[in-house]
Amino acid sequence: MNRNIMFALAGGLVAGFLAGYFVGAGSAKETTVTTAAPTAGVVLPAPSLGGGMGAGVAAPGQLPPGMGLPNAEVQARIIRMEGIVKAEPKNHDAWVGLGNDYFDSHQPQKAVDAYAKALALKPDDPDILTDQGVMYRQLNQFDKAIANFQKAGKINPAHVPSLFNLGIVYAGDLHKPDEAAKAWNKVLVIAPNSEQATQARQLLAQLNKGGAPR
């Protein structure tokens, strides 16, 4: 499964700082349960950079504007995937697919639980750890999000999405700009020409101007 676009989720911070920057590997594409675990994709620019979800993105623990129950197509797919994992509880890819659908339909606790089942079967997947970390952040469980991103980085030290997200939580949620700067500077070293690096430079500039969230 190739999840090429990662959701720019809620920043929800004062003065628009970090709004829309949060990165996951969620995708609205239908899951094929016979495929391998996903690879990390491309982060959408934040609204301030001309992309992302636009104005009014949600704060942690809130749904983005206009987002409620999943639409009929997604709900039908969720029901189908729930049936698969009930019949095949050791089907790793089905748990990943179900987690993705919960992620995309903004059901963070269910996504966390589904990803946990997948990780119990294959524990060393930095992409799944990152997606679960995004959902932990949506639940305001920032320490667990940090732990996931750090574990993903230990598994793959060149895993840019987990590093980028680590900076987001440190800066936007835990108000630790020095730790955020460390994470984003690592992004610049590992992948200097990536979209994440472009955004990291913007965010570092904000930190240097004293733009860290209050």
TrEMBL record:
Transmembrane parts of this sequence: none
Xref: InterPro entries: TPR-like_helical_dom_sf, TPR_rpt, Ycf3/AcsC/BcsC/TPR_MFPF
TPR repeats: from-to residues: 92-125, 126-159
Keywords: Repeat, Thylakoid, TPR repeat
Signal peptide per UniProt: none
Cited Pfam families: TPR_1, TPR_11
Superkingdom as given in the UniProt entry: Bacteria
Protein's recorded name: Tetratricopeptide repeat protein
